Amino acid sequence: MTMPPTPTTPGLGLTDLPVNGGTVLVAGDGGLIGSYAAREYTRLGWTVHGVSRRALDDVPWQHHSVDLLDPESATSGLAGLRDVTHLVFAAYVEKPTDAELIEVNDALLRNTLDALRAAGAPLRHVTLYQGGKAYGHHLGYFTTPAKESDPRLVAPHFYSTQEDLLRQAAAERGFTFTALRPEGVTGYATGNPMNLLLVIGVYAAICKELGLPMRFPGTRAAYDVLYQTTDAELLARATVWAGSADSAAGQVFNVTNGDQFRWSGLWPRFAEHFGMDYAPPQQMSLTEAMPTRADVWRRLVDRHGLVPTPYEKLVAWPVGDFLFHHEADNITSTVKIRQAGFADALDTETRLLQRFDRLVEQKVLPPFHDR
């Protein structure tokens, strides 16, 4: 059996991954997490199917446009997937309240599982994604480093209800599952604005075009807290590992790059990398301010021939506002997943700069230096 090429990203490739291991369905293959998972499974030679409501063009896996919120649509749309052994569940629908989030996202998972059962798929493993909200990141301060053994929040959350649904289905239908908890996933997926990289990159490009310095748009306290991120490529490798490792069965794992940083250490490096002046933080609302600069972005798109994504769909500015105004450390322990056998790690500063350069090469961001 020929092994696939070793990833070129420094720090990746430490954990052996299964090659040609079966057939996987990635629910939410148009999103940031799902697209990287589908790409990694494809690279490893698996048979890969992806499913989401919107059509996807030019992907190297088999995509199916299916509305998973509709049970009948899910059953008919997945009827042909009789060989699926692994499910990667990255589908998600945003709603304004916890009750609505639970209702709609539980339905997505339930309908997908039921459709695969109806198809007669020999499902062996399901990977589910959670995140820092499991520990109360969205509520403010929480105990750090957060561990998977920490108690659940008293308020119901769809992370918990989906996990309970999955545990019950696994026990009844004879498959295993793993829940992964990344934080601040960084990467790029076309048409997905929920992306910290684009928040920073588009903000920087507009500021530079206006002759303004690079300055942190959040609070001084948020500038100095400890934070962490999870590279989308690393998370994809953790996903493949979780689907095959006996030590991952029935477990919940935090998964991050493995280091921590303060924005106060990174922001001056961003300025240097982008060829911009640096200035101290200035608190603002990106959600209010940045939509007023659509004309500046259109000018950059025209000048540099950038990917013509509509400005209002390019960046989810509330993502930046939330992270840049969060005044508590956000650190989770990754000891458990390392002890279980997944050892991949990245230097976040280096990786973020590499990703910005890649976005320039892809003509998602304008060049930051005259060439």
From TrEMBL:
Source species: Streptomyces cathayae
InterPro entries referenced in this protein's UniProt entry, alphabetically: NAD(P)-bd_dom_sf, PRISE-like_Rossmann-fold
SUPFAM superfamilies: NAD(P)-binding Rossmann-fold domains
Positions of transmembrane segments: none
Pfam families documented for this protein: PRISE
Protein name: SDR family oxidoreductase
The PRISE-like Rossmann-fold domain, residue ranges: 78-366
